[in-house]
Design a protein that fits this description.
- The chain is mainly alpha-helical.
- The protein has a single domain, classed as Amino acid/polyamine transporter I (Up-down Bundle).
- The chain has 19 helices and no strands.
- The chain is globular.
């Protein structure tokens, strides 16, 4: 469901980004096509999403280190990880790009390796032998707590997909978006299919949901990723530690991206007059220095990892970040629907668009509907939570209130920002005929791009045509 929604979202974003390229924040589309107050709320929602990810990922890295029963204080590991991430971002775009290339290469190799290993282990090819198949899907079962259990993990799934929308934005800024965007979107599909669906299906086959080593179980000593636990269960020595190092690198990679993304978002908001002007300061090396320092400073929240509230802090920060993505994606889909409406009302034709969403307006409605359904489902599981793995139910006003805000924390923050800005500045809801379709529009010679496309495709060999059809 999240994957389908994201495919539609990236398509919609790509179409708008080709016409109106923006840097750093998607809130510009909400401001232009929906309501400036909603644009303000979405801008700070997206900034908050990435600002909170840095301490969240450092806490996750500290939890990962616990796998080795280290007697070193978690605070020491937090300081090390925090210093590494800040140092990389101080090198600017080049340093960030080089680090991410290395991190990404390691992650891709590890996930592909795990998929092959997972298939072998599931059919009984591990050291312990024994066919596993779908055993754990029957006992204890595939869907813990049924449909409500499925609804309860939507925030976790959204958190895992956060940042995917950046692919459409980056591809739209290239010289020929008609060429780069379809490729980028198809790669999003394969990324979802291979790195999320296949790998997580294998995890589900290899580990029962009630394993006490998983975070969210009744145990308080969760120390390892499900990928590591799957390898541990096969009694393969050495490899669990290697996989745990890869997980740690992946976690630090996201933390590294969070500083880069949040600092650029803050700079864009400041440029639009929706954040303090000082965040718009760019130094001689092209770095939004003040924004980087501010984003990095929130990393000090990660020292919560040194307390006994480590996992609780992880849950709260994940809730704040995960639901933020749902609001971002829903707003992108709705903005695209309104953009298409304005495009038609103001006498424009679809032939004037250099790139058209393959999913169309229908896809944006579908994506928007899925986002709304996820918000409804999350509200439901927030006010009527599922029982813990040991059967214990949450009762009492205090625990139920805490559970609701753990599941729905971003919603009141977003709505509060929107209402406050709306009342203070009395912004109007944008009407189709009043939307500005000229300011900031990118001028592309569509006819020249089409000729270039036809000439290039004619020179492709058959294997490349087949490859481009899929990728």
């Amino acid at each position: 469901m999240i994957g389908i929604m994201l495919f539609c979202t990236v398509q919609a974003l790509g179409e708008m980004a080709v016409v109106f390229p923006v840097a750093g924040s998607f809130s510009a589309y909400s401001t232009r096509f929906l309501d400036p107050a909603w644009g303000f709320a979405m801008g700070w929602n997206y900034a908050m999403q990435w600002l909170v990810v840095l301490p969240l990922e450092i806490v996750a890295a500290a939890i990962t280190v616990n796998y080795w029963d280290s007697h070193i204080s978690p605070a020491a590991w937090v300081a090390i990880f925090f210093s590494i991430i800040v140092s990389i971002n101080m090198f600017g775009v080049k340093g960030y790009g080089e680090a991410e290339f290395i991190f990404s290469s390691i992650k891709v190799v590890a996930v592909i390796g795990f998929i092959f290993l997972g298939v072998i282990l599931d059919i009984g090819g591990g050291p312990n032998g024994g066919y596993i198949g779908g055993k754990y899907w029957h006992s204890p079962g595939a869907f813990n707590n049924g449909f409500k259990g499925l609804c309860s993990v939507f925030v976790t799934a959204a958190f895992a997909f956060a940042g995917t929308e950046l692919v459409g934005l980056a591809a739209a800024e290239t010289a020929n978006p008609r060429k780069s965007l379809p490729t980028a979107v198809k790669q999003v599909f394969w990324r979802i299919a291979l790195f999320y669906v296949v790998s997580l299906t294998l995890v589900g086959l290899l580990i029962p949901y009630n394993d006490p080593r998983l975070i969210g179980s009744s145990a308080s000593d969760a120390k390892a990723s499900p990928f590591v636990i799957a390898i541990q269960n096969a009694s393969i020595t050495g490899l669990p530690s290697i996989m745990n190092v890869v997980i740690m690198i992946a976690v630090l990679s996201v933390g590294n991206s969070s500083v880069y993304g949040s600092s650029r978002t803050l700079a864009a908001l400041a440029d639009q007059g929706q954040a303090p002007k000082i965040f718009a300061y760019i130094d001689q090396q092209g770095r939004p220095l003040v924004a980087i320092i501010f984003a990095s400073s929130l990393g000090f929240l990660a020292f919560l990892a040194a307390s006994n509230k480590e996992e609780e802090a992880f849950v709260w920060m994940q809730a704040l970040s995960g639901l933020s993505s749902i609001f971002t994606w829903g707003s992108i889909c709705l903005a695209h629907i309104r953009f298409r409406r304005a495009w038609k009302k103001q006498g424009r034709t679809l032939d004037e668009l250099a790139f058209r969403s393959q999913a169309g307006v229908f896809g944006s409605w579908l994506g928007f509907l899925f986002n709304v359904l996820i918000l409804v489902a999350q509200f439901w599981t927030g006010i009527a939570p599922i029982p813990a793995s040991d059967g214990t139910r949450i009762v009492g006003a205090g625990p139920l209130t805490k559970n609701f805000f753990e599941a729905y924390l971003a919603a009141p923050v977003v709505l509060g920002s929107y209402i406050a800005y709306k009342l203070w500045f009395k912004t109007p809801i944008m009407r189709s005929m009043d939307m500005d379709l000229r300011t900031g529009a990118r001028e592309l010679d569509l006819q020249e791009l089409l000729v270039e496309e036809v000439v290039e495709r004619a020179s492709w060999p058959k294997w490349k045509k087949a490859y481009k059809l899929l990728c």
